[in-house]
Amino acid sequence: MHELEQLYEETLNMVEKTEAVNAEELIALVDQREKVIHLLEQQGNLSTSQKEILFKISEHDASIQSKMELLRDEAAQALNKLAKTRIHKNKYEAQYTGESFFVDMRE
Fold first, then answer.
1. What is the SS3 assignment for the chain?
2. Percent of the chain, pLDDT > 90?
3. CA 52 – CA 47 distance, rounded (Å)
4. Is the pLDDT of residue 61 over 80?
5. Burial class of 32 by CB neighbour count within 10 A (0 to 12, 13 to 18, 19+)
6. Each residue of 64-94: pLDDT tens digit?
7. 64: Cβ–Cβ under 8 A, 6 or more apart, which residues?
8. Gap between the Cα atoms of 14 and 64, Å rounded
9. Are 94 and 49 in contact (CB under 8 A)?
10. Cα 71 versus chain centre, distance
11. Cβ atoms within 10 A of the Cβ of 11, count?
12. What is the pTM of this model?
């Protein structure tokens, strides 16, 4: 199955350049894995060579998952920093609208 071999090649490429991988590339790899799994489920019985390739792919799951977790943590930290900045900024901004009026009722 050509798709399975291509998935294995993509997985190896991803593991080799783990430090430079971005979230979009990881998402593309996960999408490709889903497609291949769906094709394998439709096929039914797996050949010995397909099982071997799947095993080789699964050996790299831990490193790919750790990169995904690292990216998730970085995104969470960035969101927290953004939220803190927004809260800090709101403290110094006026909480009223510029269209309000004051009326002095003294005579």
1. CHHHHHHHHHHHHHHHCHHHCCHHHHHHHHHHHHHHHHHHHHHCCCCHHHHHHHHHHHCCHHHHHHHHHHHHHHHHHHHHHHHHHHHHHHHHCCCCCCCCCCCCCCC
2. 52
3. 9
4. yes
5. middle
6. 999 999 999 999 999 999 999 888 877 776 6
7. 11, 14, 15, 18, 26, 29
8. 8
9. no
10. 7
11. 22
12. 0.71
Backbone φ, ψ for residue 17 (5° rounding): -110, 40
Which residue type does 33 have?
R
Identity of the residue numbered 70: L
